[in-house]
Amino acid sequence: MNLLSVSHLHVNFHMKEQELAALIDVSFTLNRGERIAIVGESGAGKSVLGFSIVNLIGKPGYIKSGSIKLENKEITKMNLRQLQEVRGKRIAMIFQDPMMTLNPVLTIGDQLVETIRSHTKISYKDARNIAIEKLHHVQIASPEKRFDQYPHELSGGMRQRVIIASVLLLNPDIIIADEPTTALDVTIQAEILQLLLAICRDNGVALVLISHDLGVVSKVAERTLVMYAGHVVEEGPTLEIINDPQHPYTQGLLNALPQMTLPGQRLNQIRGSMPSLAERPSGCAFHPRCPYATQKCRQEQPRFIYSGVSSVACFLVEDMLNEFADKDKEAS
């Protein structure tokens, strides 16, 4: 049984008597201890998907249809009390800005102890010991000292470590990390990613890493979903997607990485921009930006097909595979 199963998920936003689709027919599974990444530009639907998993989509957004199951339990049908049992204890989230998560008027220790005691019936002393142990676990020096400090007294990297410690307090099965290193410099980014990777490996925790950067994803995730305009357009093993991207959008994301250009050269970029929810084009949503788009791409939505060990929604790839199949028939 899969730990997490998302099936045909549709999420809409009701705006001024207009229904806008934010997620369209998204499906994927996550096994215990597995690390997957959700990749795409801003507006692709990555964060909406992350919030949907724990049913945290607020109005005017709502889950229109589809299924999100944690083992055999349907999250979309849970009441508030049931959701509180899932959030934090079974599925925990790490956000990109720790200052939006940490309360500036409470010490680090008070916040960690409050989290523990809201879910368990243990003494303050025992909760304090657990909190200090978790701070030590995320490689925070002098955790007893940090326990009594306020968020503004810590560096950005230290605050993000505190957030990681907080999600470990209740030993979750899944961590959803939404752009957890965006606000950090490159050196600290690498340290945080290595910390997340080690924690997941050592504790058998599954990870959903949300990112716009395939370079970041390559260091952590075993499997990657590429999203565009609310759709998953490519899915497969991370190394396979990076070494042999199938969808033109995935190819564009890889070509836009700084390491893909020589020093002094301008960075490659995908022409155009992500469409808004109200302006999603017909057919394949990527066709206005795609150098290979045909009339069929403008009119029809491509279906998912297997290409090697990956699956991709692209008429170009489908036509190429059909051509190879026809040549094989002729040769035989």
TrEMBL record:
SUPFAM superfamilies: P-loop containing nucleoside triphosphate hydrolases. The keyword Nucleotide-binding applies. It comes from the Bacteria. One of its GO terms (molecular function) is ATP hydrolysis activity. It is a peripheral membrane protein. Its EC number is 7.4.2.9. Gene3D superfamilies: P-loop containing nucleotide triphosphate hydrolases. InterPro entries: AAA+_ATPase, ABC_Ni/Peptide_Import, ABC_transporter-like_ATP-bd, ABC_transporter-like_CS, Oligopep_ABC_C, P-loop_NTPase. Belongs to the ABC transporter superfamily. This is ABC-type dipeptide transporter. It comes from Marinomonas polaris DSM 16579.
